[in-house]
Amino acid sequence: MNALQVSGVGFAYGARQALSDLAFELAPGRFAALLGPNGAGKSTLIALLTRLYELQQGDIRIFGHSLRRAPRQALRQLGVVFQQSTLDLDLSVQQNLAYHAALHGMPRRQAQARIDEELLRQDLAERRHDKVRTLNGGHRRRVEIARALLHQPRLLLLD
Q1: What is the pTM of this model?
Q2: Is 42 a member of any domain?
Q3: Is the pLDDT of residue 104 over 90?
């Protein structure tokens, strides 16, 4: 089973076709980079993979789960670090991560254990009580990565 399978995906913004019959597969444990000029469809694909946009043509499967037919199961497998920050600048690192863990339905004890693990992995344990607003760009990005990994996704997207 592939980590990601994109089959015949097409998407248009009105009359402008952004993606046409896009197809590729990504095996578990592998990585891929999307390269191309502005307007090539990279951000459109990320928006489709995360269901920010509704799929118009084709199918996307994440570890066998169709985004069309089983979106919850598919998205449960996915961790995302968006191009723009999704952190609340007025909350602490700990509060941001606890909030996102709750959105994933994690019990508090499990959430705290995962937060501790990810903060150690990202070398941010000493910054847990700092407001995100006070962090530099690199630290903020590492908090975003920790947030994306909290629920232990099988597929990670970095935009």
Answers
A1: 0.88
A2: yes
A3: yes
